[in-house]
Design goal:
alpha+beta; 154 residues; globular
């Protein structure tokens, strides 16, 4: 899937992208993440098949507020930083859309954010099961890191 940069920026600024959210409870952390994440993956898959920019967020049950988002974007920055995305891209370019795993928590690191590229949307649409397994492994690792993170960074 490719998109003209300006079209992407317009959708994000107008908030016309699709978004879903999954609330993870403390008891869920010991469960099979594959089943918990399946509705989010299905949401992304159905929207991305229709060339619709999408994301889903995991709301996490930690003392320090934290989220994990899977966003279909054009650069490794979250939708919230759309103005920076505009500065770093050429609005006339047509670029591949990629899936980025965005973890945010004040106690994660100095910036409070980590962004990892997971796959292109084209790869996700062609081999969803493989890409979902990779992302689920990464999310599980991020959950462990967040649970082990100190309450506050020095």
């Amino acid at each position: 899937m490719k998109i003209k940069t300006q079209d992407f920026l317009d959708q994000v600024r107008a908030e016309t992208f699709t978004s879903d959210q999954i609330e993870i409870k403390q008891a869920d952390l010991k469960k099979d993440m594959t089943k918990l994440l399946a509705p989010g993956y299905q949401f992304l898959l159905s929207n991305l098949k229709e060339n619709q920019i999408s994301q889903f967020k995991l709301m996490l049950p930690f003392e320090v507020p934290a989220t994990i988002e899977l966003q279909a974007g054009i650069i490794n920055l979250p939708f919230e930083l759309v103005d920076k995305i505009a500065l770093l891209t050429n609005s006339e370019d047509e670029v591949p859309v990629r899936l980025y795993l965005i973890t945010t928590a004040e106690n994660l690191n100095k910036s409070g954010m980590r962004i990892d590229e997971m796959a292109t949307v084209t790869e996700f649409l062609a081999k969803p099961t493989e890409v979902e397994a990779k992302i689920t492994t990464e999310i599980s690792q991020k959950l462990v890191e967040l649970q082990e993170a100190p309450a506050a960074l020095e």
